[in-house]
Each structure stands twice: as C-alpha cells, then as structure tokens.
C-alpha cells in the first residue's frame, strides 16, 4: 500500500504492508496489481483489543487459477513501539500541490510563536455511582440550549467560560457543561495525555492541526526537543498511545464554538468532550457569518430572531 493522502494532506509516498487506522481516521493508498496472477488475502484486524476481530477478503486477478495460500496473514502485533514508529513515519509531502519552493509560504508552523499551551488528560471516573469519562476531570453534560445558539444570542446561564481547566487536575471527576475560552488568531500547543491502558483517539471540529510529536511516557517541556517542526502531517484526528502523549500545533483561525471529543462513541456520549470557544471581539462578518434565517431555535433561544446589540 503506497500512502498518498491523509485527511486532505498529501504525504510522503511511503509503502506499507500493514497500516494502522485509528478511530475516525482516513487514508488514501495506491495498490499496484503487479504480482503474478492469483488470489491474495486482504485482512483487516483490530489491534490493542482484548478480543481480536478479523475480516478477510480476496483480491482476485481475472486470469487467476491459484487460490490464496493458507493460512491468512497472522493477526496484528500488540507492540506499541511498532505502531508508534509507523505513525511517526507519516509526514507531509512538501513538494506536492504546487511548484513552489515552500508550499507553506511565509507561514510555517514550526516558526510561529506559541501563545498558549493546553494539556488535556483523559480519565474514566465513577460519578454518582455511574461510569463516566472525562477530560481534565470534567465530564461533559449537555445544556438545555445548543451552546452555539446561547453564545450567538448571548444567553446567560447556559455555560460558563473557563469551566474546564487548561491542565490536568488528577482530582475526582465532576459533571459540567465544559467550555474553554480561546482568542482568535492565537497559536496553540495542545498536548493530549493518556494515563490509561487503551489507545485514545481524538477529533477537533472546525480545525486541522499539525501532529508535531508523540511518544510513550509522560510529557514534559523537554519533550519539545523531539518535535517535528519541519514536515509534520496536517490532519483533524489524532491517536494517543497507552501511557503516552501526543502534541499538536493549531492556529486558532476559525471563530466559533467547536467540539473537541473522543472518537470512541461510548466515551464521547458519557462525557469525554468539551467545547472550544474561539472568540473575536470584532464581531465581524469577515470572521464569522451570521446565523442562517432558517436555523432552528430551541431551548432558551426559541423565538429569537436577531442578535442583541
């Protein structure tokens, strides 16, 4: 499999015989039909799970008279280091998408000053006797009004900015409609820290970002020395390995109320998400369009027609 694209970004065209695809991720690969005529196995298996689930298909040449050679390829390795090294090998193709010496122009992610560092740690607390999932000890609960409507119409009492901390607290989990405030046109370093024994996968709505580093162990400021500040791939999902961390650089260039969430649906439903409110005081249509006239208004926004002055 020759990898050519990851979530909208052209990549170095490395060839893989096995490719890890984590929750929410997408890849484009090229497969050359240049082998001797025959039937060949294509196997998809789960990794890092207690029970390995496997499905098998056949790549068949039209002039094939040979059946696949049994047994099918072996199940996946559970070696974290193997998967981690593969993830690091996926890099941006800086010569694609235009005959320019610097496809990123004068704006290169590795040379932009960081305006804010946010550390996010997932956890699985028991709250009120029930299993919940949390980020920085906060387990998200929905409000009675969609947060974007409450923000647009300036409706008080629906959420509070700063209701989720910028750093892990390692305290007991609690329920909250968690919203983090962020300034428009900042440049954030976000570190996802995983203290659990399972692989975590994350998505950020409204944004793409550069995955500059990932490793096992605990993230420290010295971890920045290992960052890839040249050709890190730009994408919208990321994985964090057990007892490990993943760091991203993200320009806060999209005004709005954006969901940051686990790609594990059970975890997301039970609280492992929050909203990032990127705000511009200019309140300009250049930065954010007005709400559509036919948008549904519900909760405390029911009946609202215009934004208050």
TrEMBL record:
Residues in Plastocyanin-like domain copies: 145-281
GO molecular function: copper ion binding; oxidoreductase activity
Coiled-coil annotated spans: none
Keywords from the named record: Signal
Sequence similarity: Belongs to the multicopper oxidase family.
The protein, known as: L-ascorbate oxidase homolog
Taxonomic lineage of the native organism: Eukaryota, Viridiplantae, Streptophyta, Embryophyta, Tracheophyta
Residues of the full protein shown: 235 to 543 of 543
